[in-house]
Amino acid sequence: MTYENEKNDKEIRILGAAQDLFSRYGLRKTSIEEIAKSAGLGKGTVYLYFKSKEEIFDAVVQRFSETMTERLRTEIADVHTYSRKIEQYIITRLSFMNEMIRTNGLTAEVMNEASCTPAILKVRTKFGAQHIALLKQIIDEGVKAGEFETTDSEVSAMAIFVGMDGLEKPWSFPGRELPLEDKARALIELYLVGLKKRT
Length: 199
Fold this sequence. Notes:
Layout: H1 3-25, H2 32-39, H3 43-49, H4 53-77, H5 82-104, H6 108-115, H7 118-144, H8 153-168, H9 180-195
């Protein structure tokens, strides 16, 4: 194994261990020592790659957001109508978040703590802008094709992006677990009925 491959392997191990621990215990309750132990590395080795657990958290969040954005772009690319592209965006984003929450055992407490961190705010600004731009492009092209009608495509894109936040999390409705399909159908009906061109 070359030095570069070994370096990449260790960084991947650190980020994988950190993601697992952050998901289960949150940022505040996770230590560098625990991350190092879980990754099978010494504490000093972790510090060769990251200055602090906050920097590790930042990298974990960045990697998660890049993976989700890439999956969204891939899933939308081969869809031919603009209505279906919006539907696919909604289904893919809900499915990705559901998979992330279930796989990592994320709780409302951990998610709420994370939502207030500078890392999440920075990533949300960056990737939020990318998602809104992607949705705006789909809406604009849908308007040109005569499929959609809107007075402001950017506001429509922002509404879709922001409006999905609450439904992504299973604890949004206390006492009621909404199946993923029901959430997707509700959002698709809400957004597409409003965007569809009136005849």
